Amino acid sequence: MELFINQVLAGIATGAIYACMALAIVMIFQAIDHLNFAQGEMAMFATFIAWQLMQWGVPYWWAFLLTLIISFAGGVIIERLLFKPLAKAPVLTNVAGFIALFAIVNSVAGLIWDFTIKQFPTPFGSSPFLGSQLISTHQVGMIGVTLGLLIALFVFFRFTRIGLAMRAAAAMPESARLVGINTGWMVALGWGMASAIGAIAGILIAPVVFLEPNMMGGVLIYGFAAAVLGGLTSPLGAVLGGFLVGVFENLVGTYVPGVGNELKLPIALALIVIVLVVKPTGLMGHTVVKRV
Amino acid sequence: MSVLLSVHDLRAYYGQVQALHGLSFDLNEGSMTTLLGANGAGKTTTLRAICNMVRSTGPIQFEGKPLNGKSTENIVRLGIAHVPQGRGTFTTLTVEENLQLGAISRKDTKAITDDIERMYAHFPVLKQRHTQQAGTLSGGEQQMLAVARALMLRPRLMLLDEPSFGLAPLIVRDLFNILGKINREDKVSILVVEQNAQLALEIADKAYVIETGRIVMSGNAKEIANDESVRKSYLGY
User: Fold this and answer.
1) Interface confidence (ipTM) of the complex
2) Domains in chain B: how many in total?
3) Which residues of A touch B153 (CB under 8 A)?
């Protein structure tokens, strides 16, 4: 029983990270109808920036904050330079763009910081949480930061005018322009926010998976699985999907014989395929119906 | 009466296809003008060209300043509210959020709240449904919402693309009465595109008839309504 609870809690903790990645993926998908394959690499790069800042002596939380700002700006710049010109291009052109971005970010990170594994600090410590062997303080921190982020995003989208404008621009771009919304900048803002959310995910998971240019590969696949499971059109679904995938992954790895750690990743991929076949709209997504 | 909107020698293109062939007209401040014509005559294209939603040439002036080259959102911000065909409702958002969005380019948040109440007074059914998803409204209610959303901009000029489309005759009558009231009382100039010529001519003061991208007839709405040969050959009633 203790093993079970332990695995569920650990699943929720990593699920929080998947939730962040899924959220970032959904935000960009909502804005431009494409999956950002480079989301994980952008998060990895942001994590390296945080690490570099700390190497230069910046305290953890200041480095965290600075990294978010830099990531936000970076996301906006990538959208303006690379994806704004591709806005009307065919799907495959965009896919090529994302793959190029993936390769470039990955190589540049390797070039600057090399491919050796680095330790990444945690501000929460890794001792047992409140003396309990079931969950560590860092895992509790991961869950806490994610929940805080979700509440902040909810408030932003529900109660601010700019949040409303972003929702309108994502749902119906032409109508949004007709009420005076600059939809181009709303897309850029979405990229900035997705990039910053990804950075949070990277920084939180880095103490667990260690820092290196390929650290987000697996995490991104789980993020995709979470986003697909939740329905690509629903931020809430993405979050729920993240937690479910995290728990599912751990339980299957523990209890299904022969799976273990090595076969966890194919399970995420299998999950994507199954959801797409059985319920393509995911748990909370909606079918896009247009009245003619 | 001064000219609010002037369009001169407007030519518009969809890809290689030319949809408007040199169309000119003026809209006076405070007037309710209607563009009439059959399917495919170029009515919708004219409205879309004014808001720079289709490639076009020919000077378009609003309050004496050129609109050409401005982005759609910046044209809207000058006070031109466009209710497109199909109404442009944000179907996944609530009725109240739709109204908020109509005023999204305004900064005076206090006045916006008052204006929302004013819209609820104009259209009581919207108040009943203010927390409902706009997509769940009936066609008539959605058209009311579209007009209300446009008014939230506090526009100088409202462009309406076939507001009667798909609505029951009684509701259309209601809607046009409201439009007339808005035109007279709120001093909003209106350019309305219609296939329902009879009704449009009743409430408009000036009318233009378009055929295959050209204006073939213009004049006082009453005179056009009374001219039997025009009615027979262009308006079909």
Assistant:
1) 0.89
2) 1
3) 179-180
